[in-house]
Hints:
The complex is a heterodimer of chains A (126) and B (195).
Chain A lengths: L7 H14 L3 H16 L7 H21 L4 H8 L7 H7 L5 H24 L3
Chain B lengths: L5 H6 L12 H20 L2 H18 L8 H29 L2 H4 L17 H19 L3 H12 L4 H8 L3 H22 L1
Amino acid sequence: MNLPHPSLEQRTHDLYERSTRNLDLVTATHLKVLRRQAVAQPSRSRIAPLLLPAGVLAAALLAFLALVWRPAPDTLQRTSVPSTVATATSLVANTDVTDLAMAQDLNFYSWLASQAPTRQQQEQPQ
Amino acid sequence: MDHPTTEAILETPSMPARPVASSMDGFLASIEKRAFRMAEIALQHREDALDAVQDAMFRLARHYHNHPSEEWTPLFWSILRRRITDQYRRRKVRSIMIGWLPPSSRHQQTATTVWEPASRDPGPAQRHADDMALLRLSEAIRSLPRRQAEAFMLRILEGLNVAVTAQAMGCSQGSVKTHLSRALHALRKQLEDRS
């Protein structure tokens, strides 16, 4: 009596199963090593739950610092109010005066201003 | 010849569902050899197949180890299927690049043969016959369109049911049946007509 010939599906499936069972030792060992590495790798999910809260906390802290922290008022005054005793030369240095002639004029006027009281003092005794 | 009807093959699983291990290590141990064999059939290259299986195992263990173990089977085959597709594309690019090189440098790109010691052998003659049959099957599968080859390998070789195959392939169950029907038709023509 003839046995029914197995179908193509059955034959290919059996061949696949047989070839899997008879896998060579080198490949089987290689696969085992790869599997152990895959299982032993640090899973992303241990860190992932912490990433979002940590990010939110950092953003909130940054926003809080930006809102609350301001420079002290006296520091502002010191930097913004010019000194009343500044000489013409320092004025020149502070401003962006690049014109040499104007700088010389300012030097002259400052010298003139310093000379004026002494002349007045010389004229008074007469 | 007594073939089961195509409808019956398309509807029912070709074998009972395999038990799924509850630990990731157990699951990968149960699937690694079959995954390698499937990747090797698809790629016909040992090293590329090992790369694909390694990547699939790493991705599953890293991203999905918290998922219920029932989901691992379709997820694993889905990842491996994508890796095989990536290897196809990479190989295509590589072949274009190698095509531009002079013939002397092409020889450096060929894979070295690997020494394989004899394992639990059913016998050299049987082993040789199986190797030849597997090679013919592999060539026939590789001549199929990619989606048909995937449907055949997952549904017939791996024995997944239609629903799991559809999940692994990322398509509807109807599409799986269509792809499989066409694949079986083409393979019968190639393998049975030849023999």
